[in-house]
Each structure stands twice: as structure tokens, then as C-alpha cells.
Design goal:
Preflagellin_Peptidase, 2 domains, mainly alpha, A24 family peptidase C-terminal domain-containing protein, two-stranded antiparallel sheet, Preflagellin_peptidase_C, Four Helix Bundle (Hemerythrin (Met), subunit A), transmembrane helix
Length: 349
């Protein structure tokens, strides 16, 4: 294989993106630090290649800067915009912004008898091709989910194409949201990470919650509280593991007589019982940093009721978007733009 030095260095995105995709499947967590080296490399390569085009002596020089501008000022803002409206997770947006910086123009790799990518778009913005491939691949996820549910006998439209049914025990390592509330199906159910946060805050397992639901609904049943973490799967102390989470110094504590002392300057504010705080949902949200993924006391109570009363629940698992992004990037390097290639083959372009 032969390629320019910048194009060879850009291949570093593949192992990093592959690792991030695996992390997205396993934990839905990818550290921001993952992208720093690639962003630095991208900026370095942009500066390197820009020097060679500064003369603007040919149309190719001008086109280079046009493509870089589209990548930086269109693709990157698209990634941020999708994150802002909730269409992307933070890691998804950061990955695409990184790609916009590192891969603004099509690389070229020469082999004996052929060149990759095979299909180069007229626009020639490689990050846009990766975004297109990713969206096309991600669009197949609901279809695959629906086929799996139909084959399993779970035929409910449109629920079968947007969710999956699992046992309540499976929530310990599941991702996404509950697709059920006490009132019925809803895509705005309790975030499963927030459920894990609540369980860790109370030092409970799912089995303990279900076995003692009547007692645990009473806010005065809250004992010593613990660090809720961020709800990630696999944290020590989750779901009834042997080691309990560490006590949280920021969370409300409980007096030895069972009455919870509310957090306040004087320590004499009204208790959760006085505010009829079923499940101590308000106390939990008041006692943690952040909003627990946008959870409200009502949403938390509804989710806990569903989990406490049912043996199986529907969840909306969401898409580990870094997976289609990784596959879309691989296809972009090996083939090019999927949609452009299909349209070209059909004679549309």
C-alpha cells in the first residue's frame, strides 16, 4: 500500500473508534480524553496540508480549503446540534467532531491494481461521507429490532420497532429507558442509569426493592445513603453485589430513630414524610449532584412502581451510535459513500 504520510497517519482513527464502539456497547461510557490525541493529530495534519495549498495556484488548492471549511463549519456543528437536541450522546458528538477535524478530505490509498476508497463523492468531504454512512447504518437498527421481536412473538406496533422486552433482573446491565409507565407505553420512561443511581443511593438490589416495595415506598425507610455514581453498568456495589457503595457525604442521612434529617443550613427543614415523598424520590434528586439524566420525582416514582410490580418490562434500548459510526468509517475508507455509490450504480448520478 502507498499513501501520503498524512493519509497513513489518519488510519489511527480506526483502532480508537473501534475501541470506543466496544465501550459504547458495554457501558455507554467513553471518556472525553479518548478524542484528545486524534483532535491534536487532526489539527497538526490540517496545518501540514494547508501549507501546501496556501498559494491557491490551482482550483485544487481552493477546493481543499472549501472542503475543510464544510467539514469544520458544517459537519462539526451538525454533530453539536444533534447533541443539543438530544439526538446524539456526548461521546457520539465528540467522535463526529473529531472526525470532522481529522478527516475533512478524502484520503487515497494505492494498492497493486486498485485504489481505495472506490467511490469518491463530488463534494469530496470525507467526514460528510462518514456521517452519511453512519446514518444509513443506524436507520437499520429499528428494523432489526422489529424483526427480532416479531420472530420472538412480540408483535406490537410501533413498540416492537422501538423497544424490546426483558426480565426485570436484566435491568442491572441494560441500557436505555423504560418503555413503560404505570399508565402504559411511553418513550419518556425512566432512564435505566437513573434507576441504578437510585438503587446505589439506597444501597439496594433490584431483588430487595421488589421484595420490600411496600416498606420502601415510605420515605422514612431510607437508611444510610451512598454514592449513587453515574449509573454505569458494572460499578462495584450495584445490584446486590457483596461490596456496598461508599457512603455519600453529600446525600441526606438518616437519624438512628429512622427519621431522615433533611439537608438544610439549620437541619430543621421538613422531612420527606411531611411532603409525602413516596419512594423518597425528591430526597434522592435533592441529595445528588446533577439531575440524574433529566429524571423528575414523578418519573422516578412511576419507574419504580413498574419495576416493583412486573416481572418483565419493555425498554427502549437506544442505539450505541458509535457502533454504526465505526462501521460507517470502515466502509468509507474501504469503499466510500454508500448512498452516493448506490445512486451512481442506478444511474441517478
Amino acid at each position: 500500500m502507498f499513501a501520503s504520510v498524512p493519509d497513513l497517519l489518519r488510519l489511527a482513527v480506526l483502532p480508537v473508534l473501534g475501541w470506543a464502539a466496544w465501550r459504547d456497547i458495554e457501558t455507554r461510557r467513553v471518556s472525553t480524553r479518548t478524542w484528545y490525541p486524534l483532535v491534536g493529530l487532526g489539527l497538526l495534519l490540517l496545518a501540514w496540508e494547508s501549507v501546501g495549498h496556501l498559494a491557491l495556484a490551482t482550483s485544487a488548492d481552493v477546493l481543499f480549503f472549501v472542503r475543510v471549511a464544510i467539514s469544520l463549519f458544517l459537519v462539526a456543528p451538525i454533530a453539536y446540534g444533534f447533541w443539543w437536541i438530544g439526538g446524539f450522546g456526548g461521546a457520539d458528538a465528540k467522535a463526529l467532531i473529531t472526525i470532522a477535524i481529522l478527516l475533512p478530505t478524502f484520503p487515497t490509498y494505492y494498492f497493486l491494481g486498485f485504489t481505495l476508497p472506490e467511490v469518491v463523492t463530488t463534494l469530496g468531504v470525507f467526514s460528510m461521507t462518514i456521517l452519511t454512512n453512519t446514518v444509513v447504518l443506524a436507520a437499520g437498527y429499528p428494523l432489526a429490532l422489529g424483526v427480532r421481536n416479531v420472530l420472538a412473538g412480540d408483535v406490537r406496533f410501533p413498540v416492537s420497532f422501538l423497544g424490546t422486552r426483558i426480565t426485570v433482573d436484566g435491568l442491572s446491565d441494560a441500557h436505555g429507558r423504560l418503555y413503560e409507565t404505570p399508565e402504559g407505553f411511553s418513550r419518556n420512561g425512566l432512564d435505566i442509569d437513573a434507576l441504578r443511581m437510585y438503587l446505589r443511593w439506597r444501597g439496594l438490589s433490584l431483588d430487595e426493592l421488589r421484595a420490600d416495595a411496600d416498606q420502601l415506598r415510605d420515605p422514612e425507610s431510607v437508611g444510610e445513603t451512598y454514592d449513587p455514581t453515574d449509573g454505569a453498568v458494572g460499578v462495584e456495589g450495584d445490584g446486590g453485589s457483596e461490596s456496598a457503595p461508599k457512603p455519600s457525604s453529600d446525600a441526606p442521612s438518616v437519624e438512628s430513630d429512622g427519621g431522615m434529617a433533611a439537608e438544610s443550613d439549620g437541619g430543621d427543614a421538613g422531612t420527606a414524610a411531611e411532603t409525602d415523598d413516596s419512594w423518597a424520590a425528591e430526597a434522592f434528586l435533592d441529595g445528588i449532584d446533577g439531575s440524574a439524566y433529566g429524571t423528575t420525582p414523578e418519573k422516578l416514582r412511576g419507574g419504580l412502581e413498574v419495576v416493583a410490580e412486573r416481572d418483565e418490562v419493555w425498554i427502549s434500548p437506544g442505539i450505541p451510535f458509535l457502533v454504526p459510526m465505526f462501521v460507517g468509517t470502515l466502509l468509507a475508507f474501504a469503499y466510500g459513500d454508500i448512498v452516493f455509490g448506490v445512486l451512481e450504480a442506478l444511474g441517478v448520478l
